Amino acid sequence: IRDRWYQRRVRGLYVKTAEGEKTVWTRNDLVSLFSGIFFAVGWFVLVDSAVWAHMKGETELKWFEFLPAVIISVTLPMLTYFHINQLSSSEDNDLYTQSGYSTRLKIWFFFWFSLAFGCLGFSVWVLIEDFIKPGEPIYPGIGLVAQNGVVLGVILLLLFGRKTEQDYSLLT
């Protein structure tokens, strides 16, 4: 009975192992796994484009053109430290009292989301300004925009893909 209750509650992916035991892959495990893979692929594309440009010798990414990639990577832990359902607390809307946690969290999310979307915009600006010219290779700029887009997608995947224990109790 307990196993059936746990199966309904976790709503995970079950895999049979060689010993016959079940391994539970919850939604949080899968979201974390795919987020890590996408984050690594995004950085690989950026590093590959920078090395490719250096090997060709035609153009290189300057130090400030890496800033959007670094800053958006800093926004990843800042935005995913909290769960998204902590924003919807309706009983504490006063900013200056102890119960204004939800309001302060909304300001936190607004600041870091603005910074993340600003990094994406800055990477598009670098692409247009420095790499869309006749005779210039466009791959380093595409790599920068792709890395920023992938990391922003990872942020959104981690924010909206994870579930808390409250969410699991609502499903049963």
**Number of DSSP strand runs:** 2
| pLDDT < 50 stretches | 4-10, 168-172
What is the averaged pLDDT score? 81
- Rounded to the nearest angstrom, the radius of gyration is 21 Å
Helices and strands, in order, run as: HEEHHHHH
The major β-sheet equals: 2 strands, antiparallel
State the share of residues found in helices, binned by percent. 55-70%
Contiguous helical run count: 6
Distance between the termini: 14 Å
Tell me the strand percentage band: under 5%
Structural class: mainly alpha
Mass-distribution shape: flat
Oligomer class: single chain
Strand order of the largest sheet: 1-2
Brief rundown of the structure:
The protein is mainly alpha-helical. It is built from six helices and two strands, in the order αββααααα. β1 and β2 form a beta hairpin.
